[in-house]
Amino acid sequence: MAEKVKKPKNPALIAAVKAVAVLVCICVVCVTLLAVCNELMYISDDERFDRSLSKIYYGFEKDPSFSTTPVSQFASNAAYKGQVKNVYKGKTGDYIIEVLGGGGYQDGSVTLYVVIKADATIGGWTVKENVNQSYIDNLPSNAGSSWYVGKEVSGDLELDMTGATVRLTSTAINNAINMAAYYARSALGLGENPEADAQEAVKTLLGEGYENATFTNVNLSTATVDGTKSVVDALSDEDNKLSYLFRVTNGNDVFFAYVYGEETLKMVIVKDGEIFSKSEGVSDEDEFVANIAANRIYTFTFGNYNAYAIITGNAEGEYTVAGLKVGVTPKDYVLSVKIEADTDGKGKVSAITAKSNGYVPQGPAQTDTDKLLTSLVGARLDNIESLYNTNKVTGATQSANLIRAAVEAALTAFDAANASSN
Amino acid sequence: MDVFAIIIAALFADNFVLSQFLGICPFLGVSKKISSAAGMGLAVTAVMVITCAVCYPIYTFLLAPLGLQYLNILVFILVIAALVQILEMVLKRFSPGLYSAMGIYLPLVTTNCAILGIAKIVTAVAASEAEAGYTLDVIFGKFVNIHMAMGYGEAVLSGLFYGLGFTLAIVLLAGLRIKADKLHVAKALKGFPITMLAACFMAMAFYVFTLI
Amino acid sequence: MKLQRFKEIALDGTVRQNPTFRLVLGTCPTLALTTAAIKCLGMGAAVIFVLVFSNLIISLLRNVIPDKVRIPCFIVIIATFVTVVSMFIEAFLPSLYESLGMYLALIVVNCIILGRAESFASHNPVLDSVCDGLFMGIGFTLSLTLMGIVREVLGKGMLFGATLWNFKIEFFAKPAGAFLTYALFIAIFNVCYNAVERKLKHKAAHKAAVAEHQTESAVAITKEA
What we know:
The complex is a heterotrimer of chains A (422), B (212) and C (225). Chain B has 212 residues and is an all-alpha fold.
């Protein structure tokens, strides 16, 4: 009979087990306590929103029937590198716009809550978050509450941040405030709205059948075409500064409407590269009319958005083309594309240089987009798509598409010019 | 995020000791000799890097998806304590030279607020991406240079350079203290007060970097 | 608990072992938060809460917790109370939460708390430990607030957030000013403390001497008689 030998207990092992058991017990009790506390003192997203706002607007009550998603047509604007993220309407008719403005320090952005009062003035703003604005805390918080307050949202607002020592962050804030003001006058119908007035005038000029035409503002880039000259400058002259460029469509026809002048509106409407209609007071001799006729604008559709390419110069086959994108993140390219006639007389790209590189600095794929510039050399209208498809850039699709649009526009222009001369 | 920006911020403008006041206890306590200061700095840097490398994934992939963010302090401090123990054992076993240089300072590192601080910073910045409506300023109050979205690599890099910033400050202070010991100072100022005065002058010099 | 012991603990916590000026512990929040006096009060209240409760629990469990895992156990208990207090402040005092920032979470690694747990609560009875936590916390709060008042008045021309005058020396609101103020406070506190200590000793010695003299003369009188 095998007698069961009683093993001597190992005191060290018992001590270790006891130690672990006590530690685990304490942990379990503590975690349970914390879970209960968390349940009791949980802060909801709504409450966090109220807290962020309480600094600038006391007692904001949301109008629950108002959709917080911004109207997509006005939700972004390249001029301010801005984007409206959410819009809240209060029961008193005031609005709060959560808006992003770009162009700050290290090309970063700020996101603000901006209060737009029912009387179309700015009621206050506070910074919600920021990207790369390292010195945003240098903004004195008490002075910040008075900047921009009481200004009307009718037009572009000038930088109003006296004493702010953070120049680039101030630029981003100014952009965000202007984006909010732009949204307030375009989508919320607050204040005067020169853009809407211009659209009305274009509709009147087009006449019957265009009452419900849809307008897209081709946000003209401030990217430089030549030295200090911007795309807007290239399409303007001394007396006539381009205010808006709209793409107008009623579903069948597509027009581009150039709107000039500040006091009295001058309009030139272009269709397929030909002048379709002009407003009164615009004579054929005007330099800018000639400019428009020469600077053809092309539309390209890539996925969900339109890109535009404007040819702003042509010197013996060397085209200056600005690729502009209408969409969320504005990235504009100005390229100089040199084109020579191939053996069959069709255009072939012989050199591409970037005059203004719209790619976000230090972006991960900039070297790749730069590579695309060289790989499109030798492209013709009939092979650009396959060339693009083999060399396209993942991670910077939109920039790559803008480059392609600009090159394609130059090739189209070259072929059209050659066909007419033959 | 720009790596260069992290480096400048971590070493100078946002120096943990001289502008954020994290890790002051070892800064004042272990800075009598340059060798001990360097050992402490090394230990803090090593633990910071490991902490960032471990706490970041724990928070992002475990706590945040489960909605247990409120346990972060508890989890981080336990993880740090465990990591310090493991690091000490590993060093003792495999690298006696390194152990003799920084090993004795390791137990002190567990309760160093710089370590918990860096864990909170890298995870809170990561979390701000996920938690809509959460104001970063609320999390940080005053951390000026790190309001940015961080990836894993940036988190670990921050750990490394904030640790090196700490090392820089503590070694410089040790140098100053050796000089200060030779001075005749009023009896009341001996010990902590004179050390803090030295730190005061260093803080003035480092402050200049925030003005760039 | 005897009154004498209570007095002893109270005097230790607030003066003789004042955590900020005598022991120079918990320096991080002291330097960082003394820019405004109100922050100091908030921080002090949070620290008192954590100290009292962690001392209470640790003292209760002092015979249960094995020696080997005592530090992790202390840390878990402290971290729990810190989380509770930070949840409470976030929920009910959002502006204070914002101004304290991450220093609230860093109470966990404040040397005062772990130090008291290790050196006092883990081998003293419950009531003593609670008192010790309370008075250590009060000592910390008082010193912090005092420094906060000085730095706020000098650096911002304000007191508890109310503007006093336009004159301000911004240096005191900056990091370097924090080090300077702290250094001067420690020096002044030590000078005063030593002076009072010497006086008390002197008094005691004098008392003893007088008593001795009286007995001597009494003896002499009896002899004469």
